[in-house]
Amino acid sequence: MKTHSAHFYPFIPAGGVGSRLWPLSRADAPKFLLDLTGSGHSLLRSTYDRLIDLSSDSVMVITGRTHAQAVKQQLPECTDTDLVLEPSPKDSGAAIGLASAIISLRDPEAIIGSFAADHVVEPTEEFHRVVEEAVVTAASGRIVTIGITPTSPSTGFGYIRASENLNIEEAPSALKVEDFVEKPDEDTARAYVRSGHYTWNAGMFVAPAQLLLKHLQANQPELHDGIMEIARAWDTDQRDEAMDRVWPSLPKIAIDYAVAEPAAAAGDVAMVPASFTWDDVGDFAAISRLNRAVNVDEVAVIGKNKRVMTDNASGIVASDTSRIVALIGVEDIVVVDTPDALLVTTQEHAQRVKNAVNSLKENGETDVL
Known about the structure:
With 369 residues, the chain is α/β, with parallel strands linked by helices. The protein has two domains: 5-279, Spore Coat Polysaccharide Biosynthesis Protein SpsA, Chain A; 293-368, no CATH class.
């Protein structure tokens, strides 16, 4: 990396279940722990490998305590001091805030980078170049988000509206952010894409840790004070006591509301547009699109079971049973076969899998979640 790299510390918030990928993704095996692209590595492992060469030290991971063992198995190089285990889910404000606080106390000049554990990014070289621009921009005193050029008028993402170029010498693409926009309806999304002034908000942030914490203190003082108390105890033998005592009382709020939106209103946010390909692997249609495993005709096959037979069929099969799966005369089908749950849908309706998960919760069928 270029200037300021000696103070860059990326970290990985690894949370969420990925309910649109049920029954492949479960509470005890969320999507970031799975290989969903046929690469031979989980999404978490791939994210860690993508970031480690950018870091001036190590890469911190923030995840739930229930995933501690699995994360340690996948990332044996991640030390206990760089593995933040949440006692309970608190949304991204607490996770990103605490990681930033810990790092800021270790290095007051730190620039942090927050990158989700379950995204697919290619190629790595171009990702590194964009992050380098973001680090330089952050060093100028701004919170920086990486904007994804929309490929469709998606209603599933928030949007970023940017304006003039900031004329930063080593970050020629950096733009001033005017505001963040919530997930729009379809007509509004189409207007955003046509305008050319909006990018998808992928939740990637690069920022001076002290500036991020300053905005957190101004907008969420209770959350700020709580995470700072935990952070001050982090590199001591009081870490677990402070976490168990303070964490349950922290407000639950997304980093967008706690920091990004008010910081943008104050003129402190910039955006660097992504020139790499990006996918949040949000549903089974995405897995079919991204999968690099061996295909049977036009059917992508992932999972332990490769006993799939097809006849004039297309789609995706994810199977962890020993059953033969035969697809005949069906298009864009999605079949997920596990020992205790079977999902059959189409790629067109892949986003609706979350509705099935909600129904299972309401009916008390939590043993399969």
